[in-house]
Amino acid sequence: MKGIITLTTLLLLLMASCSRDKLTLVNDNVSPQTKAIITKANELELSIEEGQLMRNSSPDDKARLIVHIQRMKGAIINLERNPNDKSALITLTSSLQMINSDQIQILENDRDRLDSFFDEARYLLAGYTNAQIANNTVTVNELSAFSTDDVGDGLLTWSLFWDSFADKGIEDVMVGNQEQTVSTLANFNIQYNSLSSERKPLISRWDIRTNTINPVDGDSVYIASGRDVNGSWMLTTCDFTNVRNPSVMFNHSLTINKNTKLSKFQPNEMLRETFFLFGSSSYDGGQPLIPTSDDSGWDNLNLFDSEGIPSGQDFHTVDSSKISLKQYEGKVATIGFYFDFNENKHGRHYLSWQLNYFEIFGSSTSPVNCTDPRNVFAEKVAPVDTDSIFLHRFETGIGEFNQVTREGDPIEFKSGEHNGTAFFEISGFSTKSQGTQLLYSPAIDLTGHESPAVSITQTGNFYPPAAQEKSLMRLMIALDEEGKNALELDWEVVPFTTLPNWKWDVVTTEWLKLDSKYKDKKVRVAFEYSTDKESDVFPTWQIYNVWLKNITE
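RE: above sequence
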């Protein structure tokens, strides 16, 4: 009916008839911060009335927005005059909550200009709220009525940090003395470790992928995937020292490519035991401790106890729920996405975790800084254990190891790589060289270690059973004796029982406890490789790591 004008439309028309002289005036008695925000609010109000802003919005939405901008201006001025003005604090809180809600439809092209003002008002609100709660002027319960958040203590919270994983770069950098291709994530640090010391080396990593199926805010995403992924971390450190009720939300998808040849398939259990969100206020950089250990310093944030979990099928992408970080209120904390898939337990399926963007919420007088001083891929960093005595991963090179020929004219150990995984290897297959080569460690001090044990991860091929019986490839150990070189030491074979089938399967041996004669002594370990001229056997041996640690069980 043309003759009927809604109340809000009439209100808008009345406001539009007001000229600039009717806008809120500010004088020199208020702070520069308050003066600036009131001036910005006046400019927004005029822009709405003159059709420069909210041009395509409904008259009702324009009218509602102007009403709340005017209420906020009055509340800000009253709080400037009296920081303990409870009524003004509630007015500012309720107006900001109304704008946060869906009751006022603000189009995307108007958001940027309006959000600048709203953010300044939110940061002011946080400061006044903290002061009034501290002075017992207002209670949390009185303010929580205006919040729709279900985390923290119910106070109004808002976005304090946002970062998209799209369009992150890849570049070549020097890591130690080796050039590696790494991710240049602006705020995230990549690390790796394993929940189990008896798992094969990592065969996957967090990486940039082109997102052609479900692009979100760009044409690329960050993704971790694999069939047997051992402790793949992605970390960001956030400063919550001035934040109430911090929480985290992210957009993600989980994908399971089922191996149809396997009868065992329990997707819910598999997802819960593969994808984790951890938090820590004690992590200070570098390789994290294994998160399941009691003294790791990592808190399980119970990702699967929240809503917003993808189905794991058809690239189903969702926003997670806001997961509370309240235990880190007033602290610097690290948030860790952790991907650990054990194919031995769950079957040889292929899993992926795709992250699109990441957001921190809370109440603060300023934006949150989420960053990390290390933005380099820590590519397949070795597991770290508090009982570790000595650990060397040959993907980093020869390190403090040396090699020497024991007899004949054998080939030497050298660096190798396959499908992105580095190792040390030796093979007489192409040269048919004859002899024995020894790759030996520096001296390892076992003083004070009650129950030292050793384990290695290895693979190989061209090693028939007859040659295996002759033990052509073996780990050796010897007491380190001052004044003697490696060839003069009394080497003994370490008799592992968990070995590869020598068909390129990567196997980590059992933890074999060392003989008591090595206790509290210095030892050296060595990899000894021989060829067999009589049998014409020239095996290939690839070594990933050697690890000595205390075994307490």
